[in-house]
Amino acid sequence: MVKYLVQIGVGFIFLGIIIIFLAGMLEAEKGESKVAVGGIIGFIPFGFANDKRIFWFMMIFTAIVFFFGIITWMWR
Question: How far is the C-alpha of 43 from the C-alpha of 46, rounded, in Å?
Answer without folding.
Answer: 10
